[in-house]
Design goal:
This protein is of the alpha+beta class. The protein has 3 helices and 11 strands, in the order H-E-E-E-E-E-E-H-E-E-E-E-H-E. The protein has one domain: Mog1/PsbP, alpha/beta/alpha sandwich (Protein Transport Mog1p, Chain A, 3-Layer(aba) Sandwich). It is globular, with a radius of gyration of 15 Å. The chain starts with a helix and ends with a strand.
Amino acid sequence: MTTFRFLAALVFAVILAAPGHAQTVYRKDLPAGEATPTNGTFSVRFPITFSDVELKAEDPPAPPAIVRMVTGLDSNGVRLSATETPMLGLEPRPMEDFMAAMKQRPGAAVSDVHRESKDATEILSFALADASGGYFFHIVRANKTQYLQVIQFPETARAQAVAMRDDFFNSFKITKP
C-alpha cells in the first residue's frame, strides 16, 4: 500500500506542477492540438497551449516511478493534464484506491463515479470537489500502464471545465500497445 500511496501522491503532485523530483521538460508552450508525450504511448487532443514533461522519482526498493505528461494551464486557471505511468514491477491496486486517496483531502467530496471494463482495459471516471475547487478524473489502465487525465479548475471556471471535459476525455487514444 505504501508504494501505491507514493505513486498516487507523485501523480497528484505532478498534476499540480509541484517541483521536487527529477523533472525533464522536453517541449514547452506547444500550440493547442494533438498531444503525445515524449516516449509516451498515448495521444490526446489538447484545447489549450501545453508542455511535454517527464518526472522520475525513486522509492526503493520499488523500481523508479516514471510519469510522462502533457499539461497546460489557461488564463482562467483551468489546468488540463494527461499522464502515463508504467506499472513496472508493481502489482496494481484497484483504481478505486486512487479515488479513495483523493477523497482524503480536507473537505473533499466525490461524485459522478463511472466504472467500465472492456477487453483488457479498465476505466474509472469521477469528479472531486474540495476547498480549492474542482477536478474531473479519467483513469485508464491497460497494458500494465496507467493513464490519467485530469481537469483541475477554480469554481469560477466550472462551466468552462465542464464544456472541455467530454472532448478532452474522449479524445484519448493509446497509440502503442
